[in-house]
Amino acid sequence: MHVHTPDAGTAIDLLRTVGEPMNLTITELSADGHETKEIAEGSEIHEAHEVQRSPELDFPLDRRIGKPSATKLDKQLGLKTVGDLLHHFPRRYMERGELTQIADIPYDEDVTLIARVQTANSRQMQTRKGMLLEVTVTDDDSGALGQLHLTFFNGWKAKQELTVGTRAMFSGKVSVYRHNLTLTNPNYVVLNDDADDEEEAKRPIPLYPATAKLNSWDIKKAVDTLLVTLQPEELQDPIPEPIRQREHLLGLAEAYEKIHRPSEVGEAYKARHRFRYQEALVLQTALARRRSIAAREDATARPPRTGGLLDRFDASLPFTLTHGQFDVGRELSDDLSRPHPMNRLLQGEVGSGKTLVALRAMLQVIDAGGQAALLAPTEVLAAQHYESITRTLGPLGRGGQLGSDDDATQVTLLTGSMNTAQRRAALLDAASGSAGIVIGTHALLSDQVQFADLGLVVVDEQHRFGVEQRDVLRTKGRSTPHLLVMTATPIPRTVAMTVFGDLNVSTLAELPAGRAPISTYMAPLAEKPAWNRRIWERAREEIDAGRQVYVVCPKIGDREDEPGFDMAFFNDGPGAGSKADKLNLASVLEMHQQLSEVPALAGVRIGVLHGRLDPADKTETMAAFNRGDIDLLISTTVIEVGVDVHNATLMVIEDADRFGMSQLHQLRGRVGRGGLPGTCLLVTRLEPGHPSRERLEAVAATTDGFELSRRDLELRREGDILGASQSGGRSTLKLLRAIQDEALIEKARADATALVEEDPDLHMHPALNEAIEDYLNPEKEAFLDRG
Fold it and tell me: CA angle, 459 as apex, 458 and 460 as ends, to 5°?
């Protein structure tokens, strides 16, 4: 037998599907139809292909489902290989007897629903040639639950298929026409209640993440085609057999079949559980391997020195360390004393004293002859750290100055806005070693910045830096410096294990003695407009009492595209609305003008702080607020972390519904820091019952940042914590959910740790190693280090 084919790979795949040698010759055809090359003949085909073929999951889709379908999947969803399509899991399943609640259909969104045809009428169009088919579908035969109108232009096929009583699945974008919900020219597929194959008719219908140009059932058709040609014997299971048996998990091939083509919904849940565990194990093994590699690196041990700078500093403190600060300090001290680099995350509540703990670690490194670098995300925060650390150290931080302590070190600030002379002096301090602590922004990452002996890198607000930025600093040491990353956003334990799994985690949950509580109230102006006047009267009362006030706005000015206005925050945010809504948000510039005319604030010294200001102006504004020369500061979220003005007692957050719960928690942490009670007012103009008001009520109800963080993740799309909104691509997590799957993640972490301890390079687990390499492709890998 002799076969002519334009695609020899497809023919070979057909041979492999047969599974036995055939007396067959395959010849490739050129574009003009002429024979060009004989590929193989007879029984040698199977063997030759086995040598040349790619791993099953890496096999190109077009060789299995045809080029047209593969091209569409690639263009619409970026799916290129067998593995890409197999891992494009259904988002949910519909029973064939299920009828969707039409009354709950969202306006102006793409929907997929099952409904029954109630009426179908066709007529000639009056204004142009052709036929118009108008179909009404309903939830049930009576139409009592809801009706949806469908319009087909020249829908000749629909006229034949969508007869009264027909049940079908419809997909399209919902619009409104003459006060009725409408789908215009929707895609559809008829569901035959009297199918010949009774078992097939009972199968749940998978609904896939789709696009306007590629609907769910077209994806299902491609998956069904792929499952027929899948080579189960070529699949290598990344879950080791002992773990799979212990957890009673489905095999890989069976799991693919049941997640895409379940006979009943229960089978799909079993398959999803298997893939959740696989995802957790792959991720946790990757993190465990990173921890193992880091533990084998060499670093200079920096043990504590009795009677050194750290002891002198502790003795000078006017307060006693909290139990949490003492315990975490001991963890850091032990890590720094080892000849391997510390890799630790320090997280804590707002005002829990993270900077103090980090400072004590820096002083231990200085006592051991090294230097410490503190990397901050903004110049305002870097300047705040410099002022705070210098003030806290007192004479111990004035090395080289008259009247300084004999054991004093020098604290140096390096930012991009410094003039040439200031920058040159700071660079010399770092390179000569005279500065024990160098604080800076991205300017620290410059090739010009050198250190005499960098022993510790402290990264503040880790989520604002990528792995490349963090690692640039780590290359500036003689050996690998110790690393401490800090975050002021409380992270639930399982999220920390998932995002920061290659770091040891230390947590400060205890607030220092004397820290006053913060009272938080929602100010709903929609139903209580008179509160708007009362807010500013309340601000005046604080100012008259000698206190200071923050007013926070979500944007700088009027223009959506202005520098410093991050529309990415609003694209998918919890309070996202129309473009007009976004432009009507309270802005710093407009608020400054409005408050300057409010009678209650007459004579009040008002300042403005935002990202478009010149760096020198930002620094001076913050310094003036610190000195008490400004009574009321109108700002963007530039004051979210690190700003420490003890006299500030009131914060007004305008359009608070536009901020995340954790961000609101961080913002309110700027008040009540000086022993005086703090108050935070969450101003919203949303109507009662709006979902975003639930978040504001949650923030007002508790000051527990860890509880708020968990609640925040429950209220929004949790997948975004590791992808999508933060990395610019699709969510890295497919099925795994860090909150709901807490027990599963902990079990997978224990398994991963044991596997890596026994086999650090995973030589005995090549399939797991391959899965890690695939999972951590360059686009996805960043989140492991970003956090």
Answer: 115
